[in-house]
Every structure is written in C-alpha cells, then in structure tokens.
C-alpha cells in the first residue's frame, strides 16, 4: 500500500474540503483522517500527515472559526449547509446549526486528541526536561512535526470550540497539555503567546460555573438545546 503515490491519494482526498459542509468533513475526519494519522509510519509524515492536515486546518481557520465567532457574538452559528442553505422555522434551523457545529467540533477535538497521543509523541518533552527545539523534537513527536511544518494556520480557541462543549473539551484537553509542554521545552513565542493570551483564560472560564460567566451561560444554552432536540 505504501508503494502507491501517496501524495496523489492525499491530494485527491483533501482537494474538495473547502467546498464541503461540516457534516461531510466531520465524517471524513472520523472515518479517514484519524485512521490514516494514527497508522501513518514516521517516514510518511511529510507525504501523508502534512499534506492531509494543511487543507483541513485551513478550512478550520476560515469556516469553523467564523461559525464559532458568529455563535458567540451573534447567537447564530453560521455553518456551511449541505447543498445550500438550511430551510425551515428559524428556531429549528438555529438548533440544527448548533447541532452541526457541535458535532463537527467533537470530530476536530477527537483528531486533536489523536495528534497529541502518547503513541505518536514518544519524544514530547516533560515539563521539567531541558530546553530543546522543534526540529529535534519533531523526529519522535508528531505534534512537534506538524508545528514545525506550520500545519496550523493560526492558533485560536475555536479549534476546541472554546471548551463550551464538555465532550469536545475532554478530547481536546490532552492536546492543550501537549502544547504547554512544547511551549515550555522550546520557548516558542507563538505558542507562549497563544497559551497566555487565549488558552489559559479559556481554561479558567471553563471551570467557572457562576451564572455571570458568559461561557457558562452558552454551555448551558447549548446543553438545553441538544436535550430538547433529542426529545423531539
């Protein structure tokens, strides 16, 4: 299998991602991306993982990020719908948009959890290890490798759904921890800025269950919406 033209296969697999809706990309992540990343030999990381993840995270940076921002600031998740726009009563459409967004968020978080798994990151330094650099770490750490090759267009907490959804957060937290370990080991300014400015404040709010907490209110609203929809 590995004697095939892997880059052609990956290009074919990923070329239409930007035109897909959340439901289809989410299924692609679960059924194709995660198995391929999990089983990819170290020698094929450049031909498989990098070529596969770059278009996916570009899609996330553009479409996924906008959907979460619109939900948080406008109360409406602007999601790419299957074959055009969603139709029906406004409240029902809004609930469906949220469901699609949460489902996709969970798929992305599941992939992030795989990228940070111990099996693929044996060389990921512990917090008390001596300083190193991404190039050295990348030889035995998939996460270090994809960071070295800048597969993430930019870091933002939308990748984790701002930790609003508990199921997605549970999958994503190991990835957050791995990023902290890399930031400490490498003194990478980009990572440190993201962790200090976005990740840590969001993690603090994640545990804030007070009624005044905006993230707590949104989490409660989304949970209620999902429960009501499942009863319909």
Automatic annotation (TrEMBL):
It holds the Pfam family Exportin-5. It comes from the Eukaryota. InterPro entries: ARM-like, Exportin-5_C, XPO1/5. One of its GO terms (molecular function) is nuclear export signal receptor activity. Residues 7-203 form the Exportin-5 C-terminal domain. GO terms for cellular component: cytoplasm; nucleus. One of its GO terms (biological process) is ribosomal large subunit export from nucleus. PANTHER family: EXPORTIN 1/5, EXPORTIN-5 C-TERMINAL DOMAIN-CONTAINING PROTEIN. This is Exportin-5 C-terminal domain-containing protein.
């Amino acid at each position: 299998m590995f004697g095939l033209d892997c880059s052609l296969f990956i290009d074919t697999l990923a070329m239409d991602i930007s035109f897909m809706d959340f439901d289809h990309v989410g299924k692609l992540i679960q059924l194709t991306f995660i198995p391929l990343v999990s089983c990819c030999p170290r020698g094929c990381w450049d031909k498989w993982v990098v070529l596969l993840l770059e278009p996916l995270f570009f899609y996330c940076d553009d479409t996924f990020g906008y959907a979460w921002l619109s939900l948080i600031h406008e109360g409406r998740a602007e999601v790419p719908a299957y074959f055009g726009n969603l139709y029906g009563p406004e409240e029902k459409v809004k609930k469906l948009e949220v469901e699609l967004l949460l489902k996709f968020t969970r798929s992305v978080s599941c992939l992030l959890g795989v990228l940070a798994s111990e099996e693929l990151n044996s060389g990921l330094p512990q917090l008390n290890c001596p300083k190193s650099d991404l190039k050295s770490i990348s030889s035995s750490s998939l996460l270090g490798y994809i960071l070295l090759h800048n597969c993430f267009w930019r870091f933002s907490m939308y990748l984790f759904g701002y930790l609003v959804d508990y199921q997605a957060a549970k999958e994503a937290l190991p990835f957050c921890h791995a990023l902290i370990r890399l930031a400490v080991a490498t003194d990478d300014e980009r990572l440190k800025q993201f962790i200090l400015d976005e990740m840590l404040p969001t993690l603090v709010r994640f545990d804030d269950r007070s009624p005044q907490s905006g993230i707590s209110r949104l989490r409660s609203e989304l949970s209620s919406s999902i429960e009501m929809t499942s009863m319909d």
